[in-house]
Design brief:
By secondary structure, the chain is an alpha/beta fold. Helix content is 40%, strand content 23%. Strand 1 and strand 2 form a beta hairpin. Pfam families: Helicase_C (PF00271), SNF2-rel_dom (PF00176), SNF2_assoc (PF08455).
Length: 1029
């Protein structure tokens, strides 16, 4: 038996522990003790109370005060067979009956509790030191570059407040690799880890992994390309630079432009004398001055090429000597805008002064350029003037201008217009004067600022408001439309160009999609159903009002709500059913719908009826269910809601229409109809129901089916769906059910498919996380094994059989036809699949003659064996036509059976169920999977045989749970019969592969559709099963 001190630690979750046990309070004010010759019986006075009401608790101790048994009505005990309540009673009794022994246990509890706290504190401290050693300060690595005549070397400084020199780079790398603690000095000691470093240092560390080794010393030699990488990493902050004798800290600064200079025959970089040290990379040039490193970002490919060549000869420059003609004809046109040419150069080579004035005009949303060339007439036709003109054209084309006609260029691109208008145009000004027309000066350039979103509760609605900053709503719409068309800029008005902030645009675009708001419907204020509150993906972006946050908390913590439960339900509801009641009441109070997705056999019917009973709104409820379950609902409604009118909408068309016309929409009552009847009658329903309950809601999983459309047309304040399998064929099923319970919550299906379904099928974990977060508040799913600890176990086994030669020959013939049909895209694929499955059971299902059947022989053998062991059986099959064939074999062997299939009237179904449960003489109940797989309580059986496997494993599970459910007292055996080397054997593998998606979304494994490629794989035994999603 678990020690009392251990139990106290385990359940130390209430101030009650200290209050009752730690203070000098009379234990008898909390309990009563009865004794007899066997020991002591302890119960609380008064009863313990939970949200659902008072609970019964008892603890029985033997004469030595050791526990014999205990019982409590709380959910914790129901799940674990121990709880806080029984533990406290045990402790109270010990305190009264053996105070010395209690004191030892109590002291041990206190000691262990204190020790556990200290241990937790130590572990938390170590975790904090490891992951965030200085809480708000990250460790910084600062490189030190030392330059010699022929090379560069790298050493490191480290710190966050005070810096220390790393004496061995190799040892530092070893500390990082193994997460070692090391003290560099009094003000720096930490556990080394990647997360301990700031962002620049993380990047440098990753770089060092490629160039440093464990035996590296204080410094390591680096190449120029590696130096450029370090400069690039630290260009936002700074580093140390040393010439070998002096070390200084250098910060980085931006440099707008760098000019080339042509003086006599020397082409060089035009820069101040103090900026003679420089290094050239692919995209940048770095110029060193005292204490600063200037970064020049190349704006043109021409610059990068010339600078790379000049860097090779560094300060010397490029002497043109006798190559001046080649320079002017080949290089000068490309460098005209980049070069400052000394007047002596013009005089020496008799070159004319050429100026080109530029005139810019804004017209028809385009910027037009006209230019005028000024040069002495005698030089107009000289090659040099042509060189200069060519350089000018290249310069203006680099801004995006294109030639429209002689002397006129045009700039159409918004992006290029924005870049042009934000440029200093220095390269154009080198050629002459730049003139802007008033139309250009009036152009306004804008950036969209942060868009704020707030939400507030407004009488059943959620009112979203948008703060667009300087943008109007129409401008914001144009911005978003441009963003959706992959644009970076948008023209808001004739003279206004907006640069789109992609991050903000993406945020609002995702919001409008997720909240089902069309762009044309977007305004500064948009109202949506209040259940949109639960769409919390953007909870960091949306500012909610206090009332909305309070109601959101109610939804997320529904277990803590305390809606009262009245009789007769209070005394019969189990703890998990009371939890469902609180969930249903919370959702309906907030105006939300939901999916009650408890396992089959957990009592969804009772849960929903207790909820309807408690609701006080004087309006009717309509329950839509399969025809086979109508009388079951009627019986349950009359059993539990004695004074509430219950009306079945059945009969011929005129009878149903008459009943619908007589519905009183202002009084509380229950109406029950079938999906098929509703499909025919939907146009006759005109009023507003309080609740629409869709039972076995997988019937509305097909969004295009007439049944689905009919159910969704029913008007009600709240919609609830009941189904143990909200996902059978794919996420489209879930969308369709949500489209019923809360229309629009998951958006239009085409949006849902692209936003969620397609990505999740591609194993996108983040999208799966977001979808789960959105749907989980509205799905209540509990499995039997989690809440019914007294439910007997079930065992599943697969029994294989081998077809005889004749059966195998027939099977292979149809398999070959199916392969050919799949490859040619034939129209008879489904029919051929059905034939294969029927042949696996017996060829008699497709041929009007007698055949031997390995599977039926196995079924008969297992049945006889089970009956000898006093079992009673359910036999399920997709093909009801096999039951008379199997029934003949059962009858020959004196086995009594009955059959339920799609032809069985609904009222007769209930009679058959009652007969089987009450009459042990009926040994076998054969049921078609579609007709009897749901809604039946058949706990009179303790063995289930599935004659044939089906793609949808959830249908098999539902059928098995007809026997393995609340009320069953025996171990349930489930047997699956499979023909070896056939499509059936492959189906079992496919079922296993296809269970992941639904399990991830709603914590329950389901099955999915089968594709053409998977069918081929089934027949060929390939590996493609499930991999083409």
């Amino acid at each position: 038996m678990t020690k009392l001190s251990v139990l106290l630690n385990r359940y130390d979750q209430s101030a009650l522990t200290e209050k009752i046990l730690g203070e000098g309070i009379d234990p008898f004010s909390y309990m009563t003790i009865d004794s007899d010759e066997n020991g002591f019986l302890i119960s609380p006075t008064p009863l313990f109370v939970e949200e659902s009401g008072a609970i019964s608790t008892e603890v029985q101790l033997d004469k030595n005060l050791l526990p014999l048994r205990s019982h409590c009505g709380c959910l914790e005990f129901y799940r674990k067979k121990e709880c806080l309540h029984t533990t406290l009673l045990h402790a109270l009794a010990l305190k009264e009956l053996d105070e010395e022994r209690f004191k030892k246990e109590w002291d041990l509890y206190r000691y262990e509790k204190r020790t556990d706290r200290q241990r937790a504190l130590i572990l938390k401290m170590a975790e904090d030191l490891k992951n965030n050693p200085f809480y708000f300060n990250k460790i910084r690595l600062i490189p030190e570059i030392t330059e010699t005549e022929q090379s560069y070397s790298l050493s490191l400084h480290i710190g966050y407040d005070k810096e220390y020199v790393i004496k061995s780079i190799g040892e530092f790398m070893d500390r990082m690799e193994h997460g070692l603690f090391y003290a560099y000095g009094k003000k720096l000691a930490f556990v080394h880890s990647y997360e301990a470093l700031d962002e620049e240092s993380k990047e440098l560390y990753s770089f060092l992994l490629n160039i440093a080794s464990s035996d590296s010393l204080k410094s390591i030699l680096i190449r120029r390309s590696q130096l450029l990488k370090i400069l690039e990493i630290y260009h936002q902050s700074g580093l140390y630079y040393s010439n070998g004798t002096q070390t200084d800290y250098y910060s980085f600064k931006e440099m707008d432009s760098v000019r080339l200079k042509l003086d006599d025959r020397l082409l060089s970089i035009d820069m101040p004398k103090e900026m003679r040290k420089w290094i050239c990379g692919v995209n940048f040039a770095y110029f060193f001055t005292e204490g600063s490193i200037y970064i020049y970002r190349f704006k043109k490919r021409n610059e990068a090429i010339v600078f790379s060549y000049l860097f090779k000869i560094k300060e010397e420059g490029l002497y043109l000597d006798n190559n001046i003609d080649e320079f002017m004809s080949v290089l000068l046109p490309f460098l005209q805008s980049e070069i400052t040419i000394d007047d002596s150069f013009y005089q020496k080579y008799d070159l004319p002064l050429v100026t080109i004035d530029s005139y810019f005009v804004y017209q028809n949303a385009k910027i037009l350029l006209n230019y005028v060339v000024h040069v002495e007439e005698k030089y107009q036709e000289t090659p040099y003037v042509s060189y200069v003109m060519e350089g000018y054209f290249q310069t203006i084309e680099s801004y995006g201008f294109a030639k429209e006609k002689e002397d006129t260029y045009i700039l159409s691109s918004l992006e290029m217009q924005y870049a042009f208008l934000t440029s200093d145009l220095s390269s154009v000004k080198r050629f002459g004067t730049v003139y802007f027309d008033e139309s250009v000066k009036k152009i306004t350039l804008k950036k969209n600022n942060r868009i704020g979103i707030s939400a507030s509760y407004q009488v059943g609605l959620l009112d979203f408001r948008f703060d667009l900053g300087t943008l109007s709503i129409e401008e914001a719409k144009r911005m978003l439309a441009a963003y959706r068309n992959k644009k970076k800029f948008v023209r808001l008005k004739k003279n206004v160009i907006l640069k789109i902030d992609a991050k903000e645009a993406k945020k609002i675009d995702r919001f409008l999609e997720d909240y089902n708001i069309a762009l044309n419907d977007w305004n500064l204020s948009v109202e949506k159903p209040f259940y949109y509150l639960a769409k919390s993906v953007f909870e960091d972006e949306i500012v909610y009002d206090e009332r909305s946050l309070k109601m959101l908390g109610q939804l997320r913590q529904y277990q803590t709500n305390s809606y009262p439960i009245e009789e007769p339900f209070l005394s019969v509801l189990r703890p998990y059913q009371k939890e469902a009641f609180q969930w249903l009441m919370t959702l309906s109070t907030l105006g939300f719908g939901g999916i009650l997705a408890d396992d089959m056999g957990l009592g969804k019917t009772l849960e929903i009826l207790s909820f309807i009973h408690q609701d006080t709104i004087p309006k009717p409820t309509i329950i839509v269910c399969p025809m086979s379950l109508i009388y079951n609902w009627e019986n349950e409604c009359k059993k539990w809601n004695v004074n509430l009118p219950v009306v079945l909408i059945l009969g011929n068309a005129s009878e149903r229409e008459e009943k619908i016309a007589s519905i009183d929409y202002e009084s509380k009552s229950i109406y029950i109809t079938s999906y098929d009847s509703l499909r025919r009658d939907i146009d006759f329903y005109h009023g507003m129901f309080r609740f629409v309950i869709a039972d076995e809601a997988q019937y509305i999983k097909n969004q295009h089916a007439m049944k689905s459309e009919a159910v969704k047309k029913l008007r009600s304040q709240i919609h609830f769906a009941l189904t143990g399998t909200p996902i059978e064929n794919g996420l489209a099923d879930l969308w369709s059910i949500f489209d019923f319970i809360m229309p629009g919550y998951l958006g239009e299906y085409h949006h849902f498919k692209s936003r969620y379904e397609s990505l999740i099928l591609q194993k996108d974990e983040e999208t799966l996380r977001i979808l789960k977060k959105r749907v989980q508040p509205f799905i209540l799913r509990r499995r039997k094994e989690d809440v019914l600890s007294d439910l007997p176990p079930k065992t599943e086994e697969v029994y294989y059989c081998k077809m005889d030669e004749e059966q195998q020959t027939i099977y292979q013939a149809y398999a070959s036809r199916l392969k050919d049909s799949l490859k040619s895209g034939g129209q008879d694929i489904l029919a051929l699949i059905t034939r294969l499955r029927q042949i696996c059971i017996t060829p008699e299902l497709i041929y009007d003659k007698k055949f031997s059947s390995a599977k039926l022989s196995l079924a008969l053998e297992l049945t006889q064996r089970a009956l000898r062991a006093n079992h009673r059986l359910l036999i399920f099959s997709q093909f009801a036509t096999v039951f008379p064939i199997l029934g003949a074999h059962l009858q020959e062997n004196g086995i009594h059976y009955q059959i339920l299939d799609g032809t069985t009237p609904a009222q007769r179904r209930m009679e058959l169920v009652d007969d089987f449960n009450r009459n042990p003489a009926i040994q076998v109940f054969m049921i078609s999977l579609k007709a009897g797989g749901t809604g039946l309580n058949l706990t009179g059986a303790d063995m289930v045989i599935h004659l044939d496997p089906w793609w949808n494993i959830s249908a098999e599970k539902q059928a098995s749970d007809r026997a393995h459910r609340f009320g069953q007292t025996k171990h349930v055996h489930i047997l699956k019969l499979v023909c070896k080397d056939t499509i059936e054997e492959k189906v079992l593998k496919l079922q296993q592969v296809k269970q992941d998606l639904a399990d991830n979304v709603i914590k329950q494994k389901e099955s999915f559709k089968i594709s053409k490629q998977e069918l081929l794989a089934l027949l060929e035994g390939g590996n493609e099963i499930g991999e083409n999603r």
